[in-house]
UniProtKB/TrEMBL annotation:
<feature type="transmembrane region" description="Helical">
    <location>
        <begin position="18"/>
        <end position="37"/>
    </location>
</feature>
<comment type="similarity">
    <text>Belongs to the CCS1 family.</text>
</comment>
<comment type="function">
    <text>Destroys radicals which are normally produced within the cells and which are toxic to biological systems.</text>
</comment>
<keyword id="KW-0963">Cytoplasm</keyword>
<dbReference type="InterPro" id="IPR024134">
    <property type="entry name" value="SOD_Cu/Zn_/chaperone"/>
</dbReference>
<dbReference type="GO" id="GO:0005507">
    <property type="term" value="F:copper ion binding"/>
</dbReference>
<keyword id="KW-1015">Disulfide bond</keyword>
<feature type="domain" description="HMA">
    <location>
        <begin position="72"/>
        <end position="135"/>
    </location>
</feature>
<keyword id="KW-0812">Transmembrane</keyword>
<dbReference type="GO" id="GO:0006801">
    <property type="term" value="P:superoxide metabolic process"/>
</dbReference>
<protein>
    <recommendedName>
        <fullName>Superoxide dismutase 1 copper chaperone</fullName>
    </recommendedName>
</protein>
<dbReference type="InterPro" id="IPR006121">
    <property type="entry name" value="HMA_dom"/>
</dbReference>
<dbReference type="GO" id="GO:0005737">
    <property type="term" value="C:cytoplasm"/>
</dbReference>
<keyword id="KW-1133">Transmembrane helix</keyword>
<dbReference type="Pfam" id="PF00403">
    <property type="entry name" value="HMA"/>
</dbReference>
<keyword id="KW-0472">Membrane</keyword>
<dbReference type="InterPro" id="IPR036163">
    <property type="entry name" value="HMA_dom_sf"/>
</dbReference>
Amino acid sequence: MSPFNPRSFRTATPTTRLLLIGVSAFSVIGGASYLWYQQQKQFQDRNLSSKPQKSSDKGHISAVSKMTVTTPFQTLFAVPMHCESCAKDISAAVHKLEGITKVEPNVKDQLVSIEGTAPPSAIVEAIQATGRDAILRGSGASNSAAVSILELFHDKSTKPTPAQGSFTDRHVRGLARMVQVNPTTTLVDLTLRGVSPGTYRATIREYGDLNDGAASAGPVWSKGKGILGTVEVGKDGRGAVFLSHPFQVWELVGHAMVVSKQDEQAGPLKNDEDTVVGVIARSAGMWDNDKTVCSCTGKTLWEERKDEVSKGML
């Protein structure tokens, strides 16, 4: 007997009528609740597929799952090429990466333009696997990209003096590239090299003061907004993660980025061999950077690259 059958309702006893009303109400509420549950579950599933998980207790960061980046962006790389055969090798290597939609090598200008959702660090490795080096020359639109060179500060001899204004012996152990792909989303491509194995927590700090490394960078930026996620470093000392966050590049510029094994619940951050720090600075967008010779040193692009790699640059 259907709860909403009018004829059944009219011929039923008073007790049965009450029962029918109760069953009908339960059916309506239960159906609505089930529909709400399904909608919420679908919404959560979509979010969890593209956002890192993080707990809410005192800024602790949980393990970050693989990110699903769906918004394509452009990157431009300087790559030494001698002929069209070189261009074909590079194109084939990059197309093997997931998410690549376009690869356009230009042998004359020694540039490779790429579009897709693969992290820049993965593209560099794919090109290097062909026996050639690659330098990221620009990504995204103008004023939509940033970079942070992550260095060790545990050795006090690396700290700059006021007269020097720069580091005498840099120990680069990581690189973070950021590109804003739409008005509300920025991708963070974080790579570590030459550090001990384990889980590292990446954060953006309130200040850009690196006078005392991590110790002077302040608390996590914007009441937890600066919690980026974690990166797992293997036994080879290498680790990388590609993250998506709801902030804009201009908000990050001038802040420090810290990547460390330290648990901040145990106390303030200190400088040790497993903590790297860098200031976030703007970097060039697509076609914004046509420099081939450094105005400071007079060295060519590739001479500068060689010097930086010798200091640990990725």
